[in-house]
Specification:
The protein is built from 14 helices and 21 strands. It is an alpha/beta fold and about 425 residues long. Strand 14, helix 6 and strand 15 form a beta-alpha-beta unit. It is globular and about 65 Å long.
Length: about 425
């Protein structure tokens, strides 16, 4: 059954992602937007479908800032390049559905395994042909000769002119941002995480060309030098930033009004401790440096958080040992390892999600005028951040005012009937709030 043009969530705990504590109230959705939050005028809610909240938490849908739809839970990374495009597109669409099935309504593409997989998925989602989150599409990551992490899914470019050409070709495909692969990755066995393969001139050329055409740039940047190079030349989103040194930390802090860092912390943890059955035992991971990297990255990310640098969850889900559907583990790591409070972790995945998606006044908060992208949670994630990993606890998922997952509890359809109450506590709370 189609979602009515009005939906009233009644008697919910509203976690609005402004930083305020959750408070009891009602939320009215009209068409694709949130109309009223807190105390709802009964006459305005006439004809609404009523969802009885029963004290459950209503909050913004989540954001993954480092998404790979076309990574398909495989340990054969080169196989991503040789997989036939038809089957690969279907798998990528399945990934998109998995994200929204888990309450993720915003995702930022961090590289596609083939030229147009991301773009086609984004367009199909926007057209309503397949389910999925709001999505900003990427293309294959750009690497210099000798600097690719996975050859079969990489676009190669060398020198400033080569970078400009590669960026132009990807923009012509319809991408929303450009990905640079600037450093190594220990699991390759040949490329070190602390090695930097791009030059200043190449980075500057790629960023200048992308920005000139209205596109952002993100970068796989683990080494200290690559992080500084990113900030020097205006890379908008820094992935990983594991070995950031003191100078780089100061540079990130000075740029914190515009730069985002998405560390992908679960990748390090899972690769170190959970990849044994996929041919990469903990002993091997420690031997090549993942334990060292995790320790250094943790210390650095805690310092970034202390300095107010924008850190967002999301990281490399879609490998065999970081499978799709385990996305909210990042939030647990932010709390348990990086020193975030549960509220700060949720703000990083909601309010900052709206910012990184270019819609800070329309996405990531439960506020009047924002898009109705919300999840209804059985419990309070501020008490237990891990409940966001349990889809059984996510009772309803709404995107753009339409239910992707309707609430399984009692639903009242009161077409033409006035809603005869709002919670008294809601009215009192809203009146007391500034």
């Amino acid at each position: 059954m189609a979602t009515p043009s009005k939906v009233l969530f009644r008697n919910v705990q509203i976690l609005d992602s402004t930083g305020a504590d959750p408070y009891p109230g009602d939320v009215l959705v009209e068409d694709d937007r949130i109309a009223t939050v807190g105390a709802v005028d009964p006459t305005r809610a006439e004809g609404a479908q009523i969802i009885e909240g029963r004290g459950r938490t209503l909050m913004s849908g989540l954001c993954d800032a480092h998404t790979h739809f076309s990574w398909i839970n495989s340990a054969d990374l080169d196989g991503l390049g040789t997989m036939p495009v038809e089957e690969h597109l279907i798998a990528a669409m399945e990934s998109a559905k998995t994200y929204i099935d888990h309450g993720y309504t915003m995702c930022l593409g961090a590289a596609s395994a083939k030229d147009r997989l991301d773009v086609v998925c984004r367009d199909a989602i926007n057209a309503g042909r397949i389910p999925g989150p709001r999505y900003l599409a990427n293309g294959p990551e750009i690497a210099v000769t000798g600097g690719a992490l996975v050859h079969s899914i990489t676009k190669f470019a060398d020198g400033p002119e080569g970078m400009r050409k590669a960026v132009r070709e990807l923009i012509e495909l319809g991408v929303d941002q450009i990905k640079l692969s600037m450093t190594g990755e220990e699991i390759t066995g040949t490329q070190r995480a602390e090695d930097t393969y791009f030059s200043d001139e190449e980075t500057a050329a790629a960023v200048t060309e992308a920005h000139r055409r209205g596109k952002r740039v993100c970068a796989h940047a683990r080494s200290a030098e690559s992080v500084k190079m990113c900030v020097r030349h205006g890379v908008d989103i820094v992935y990983h930033a594991s070995f950031t040194d003191a100078e780089g930390m100061d540079m990130l802090e000075a740029a914190k009004d515009w730069v985002f860092v998405a560390p992908g912390i679960n990748w390090l943890i899972a690769t170190l401790y959970e990849a044994d059955s996929f041919g990469f035992p903990q002993e091997a991971a420690e031997a090549v440096g993942y334990k060292k990297e995790l320790e250094i990255a943790t210390e650095g990310l805690r310092e970034m958080h202390r300095r107010g640098i924008k850190l967002l969850p999301g990281g490399d889900y879609g490998f065999a040992w970081t499978p799709h559907g385990t996305y909210a583990r990042d939030l647990e790591h932010f709390v348990e390892r990086l020193g975030f409070t549960p509220m700060e972790a949720i703000l990083s995945a909601t309010k900052l999600g709206g910012e990184i998606m270019f819609q800070p006044d329309e996405l990531g908060q439960v506020q009047p005028g924002f898009y109705a992208d919300m999840i209804l949670v059985d419990g309070n994630p501020l008490d237990d951040i891990t409940i966001l990993q349990d889809t059984d606890k996510i009772h309803a998922i709404m995107k753009n005012g339409k239910f992707h997952k309707p609430d399984a509890g009692p639903v009242l359809q009161e077409a033409g009937t006035p809603v005869d109450r709002v919670t008294a506590s809601a009215a009192a709370t809203v009146q007391a709030r500034p």
